[in-house]
């Protein structure tokens, strides 16, 4: 990403595209906007007229979300090359990792072929695994043998060890996530010196959002030991650095951990009572950080990555609203799904 | 011959129980292409055979995986067929599942053996490392009262995180060697309640313990012999497994081939997919058949179906042409040319079949550019000798060789020698300008034929305005010919001529007017786009025509290369001279032969195909008895 022209072009592109992002007012207005206009606006035209079942509806909506994201990603990728291009592509691999987890979980629980297939995202060939071939495998070892022939070989080998030693899916998921975030950091460190500081800050926030709720889950839900919990953390978060994580994993209560967080994180999380609340609060922090990067970062690739992260969050919320409205769900439930602050009844 | 076969849309009404038999019979005939007709979805809402399809796909996938381990003989082209019932298919699937389980176990075992062999390599390197250390290895063994000590290796990428993590359990990690993505480590810490915690983290991190023999220092040779023995055992085990696998393959092959035949017979019903629909016991099959095969289909179904059925055939309307598959009949001679046409695309139903035009013009242009009796005959002979490898492309290469030989006779050239016999026409280098003008004439003829094909195709599609006024339409070709006529007049008399000039202006304005009507934009943009497109139509014709100059240029190039070879050969004497002549001719054959083939194809695709057919038609893919239809 050396060319000044490319930097300027990409910043302009990201800036133009940022016009598509929605704020809280927009999100709230979507709750009452005509459904057809909403579907049209987000590339899901005619969705409500098709009379789809719940599973099919989920699938169509997810496909719409990923299609939109991938189309926009391909626009941002055009002027990029080398490590800057690699990091954006690597970020998008998270969707394929969702598929990978669904495949492993499905095989582990001996789920039928069609059921696993329904839960897979359809992705562009750039990041997609040979789904049909993997779906036709008949058990986890065979699936992992097949995966060892794909670009996910490293993850597959690691997953095989975890599977052979522990034979449980959550360890596999954790290992896959840890490898993904470690890989994302590695890609950021391979970028140009000019891009690195802001990229690492943004990815650090992303890792913090991942680490804190999972630290709480591993310690208090899964009852893992401090050392194993620490091992499953992605290293080098922004505020939750290695030394702090080491202290946190040794604590015995959630409140103790939340109080030990650095300011202003501890203040923001002071009122949270559940891991879900912590996750939501961390999500808000990440959104805030990404918006700052999108507006002020001197690095074009950081702006592009920030845009993609925000766009994904936005589309998830919008599609949750569309999905809820097509299924005629209760508004409060839709608000909850779309992470819109609940309003008092009758207001 | 010049058009795809006329097709009929057929609706077969039958009883649901007859669907598998009807599918099988249609596949045996090989001239029915299933088509999902949504119009019947309401009257016949059910799609039969969902479970059958699922079982088939699993069985097919299993067979494919098994075939990676057990090679089967090619399927016989004719075998006694029968309808495969669901229980028979399930039984086959079940048995294939058992076989695959065995194959998978072998695969997993081989994988384990490979892992073990790699571990042995790692261990050997670790021992080499320990052997050079001046420590008592016995200290690393046995239970210790206060110290928990482990030696092993893990993926290098996991080391930093693991080191930090086990530090929390008061353990230390030292790495002493790294190789092939693995790091050898020693982990030690206080014995006690956190041992279990450590084991769990080590498992997650992919830690493999290594056994360091305590007697390594005292008896290194014996240890090495033991390692060698373990390696040999692994090798032996692998060989035994491979032998067992081959024995298993021999034992299973006949039944596997039977299973493959069962799947081949089951596939037509599966391939019907939603082209077969039913409501209760009443079912329909919809699809396309060549008109000429209709009677054969009806009589075959009459013989094979037990219950009454009704077949209705309708001619597709012009509006339906985009849905009709294109059936391009081929024979041994036209098959390779048809393949090359398909590389570009499939003509839409009703459009001209370009295969014959392509075959004739390609062969002619190859000969024009590569005219040499000797080279042509060598190509023909080589194609005949390599017919096993060239397969269906043998006639293509033979035709190209014969065309080169024929033009060689016209040019009077034999292996580059131009004085061995008298040219029937003329040697290219004797009058290069004449050759270039001939190439231009060929190009003009080619462009006119291509435009006529375009006009025909548009008329067939009912696009009269495009046939008349669009680029390549009647107006464009008139413009092209009047400009050419004017230029010819200019060359002969120094005047463009009133008739060509007025025709050029009228056609140009007509073309511009059509473009203005066709362009949907703001007035300014519309004018700009229409003007540019009109101009582009004219320049396109001219530049495409000039492209054909390469036909003459390559015929001249062929002679020039031969002259270069002879000049070099004349610098040598005796054997050197003849080696140079032979080597030079081989060089011309290979290099120029390849270039001329590419150039001729380029002219066909870019100057020809791109002008008259869109290539977005659907190929007629009939149901067949094979496992290749479904992926």
Automatic annotation (TrEMBL), chain A:
Any GO MF annotation of the entry: proton-transporting ATPase activity, rotational mechanism
Sorted UniProt keywords: Ion transport, Transport
SUPFAM superfamilies (UniProt xref): V-type ATP synthase subunit C
Name under which the protein is recorded: V-type ATPase subunit
Pfam families cross-referenced by the UniProt entry: vATP-synt_AC39
Statement: the UniProt record of this protein carries the keyword Ligase: no
Family from the record: Belongs to the V-ATPase V0D/AC39 subunit family.
Superkingdom in the source lineage: Bacteria
Automatic annotation (TrEMBL), chain B:
GO BP term, pick one: vacuolar acidification
Record membrane topology: Multi-pass membrane protein
One annotated Gene Ontology cellular component of this protein: proton-transporting V-type ATPase, V0 domain
GO MF annotations in UniProt: ATPase binding; proton-transporting ATPase activity, rotational mechanism
InterPro entries the record matches: V-ATPase_116kDa_su
Entry-linked Gene3D superfamilies: 1.20.1460.20, 3.30.70.2170, 3.30.70.2750
Keyword Transmembrane: yes
Protein name: V-type ATP synthase subunit I
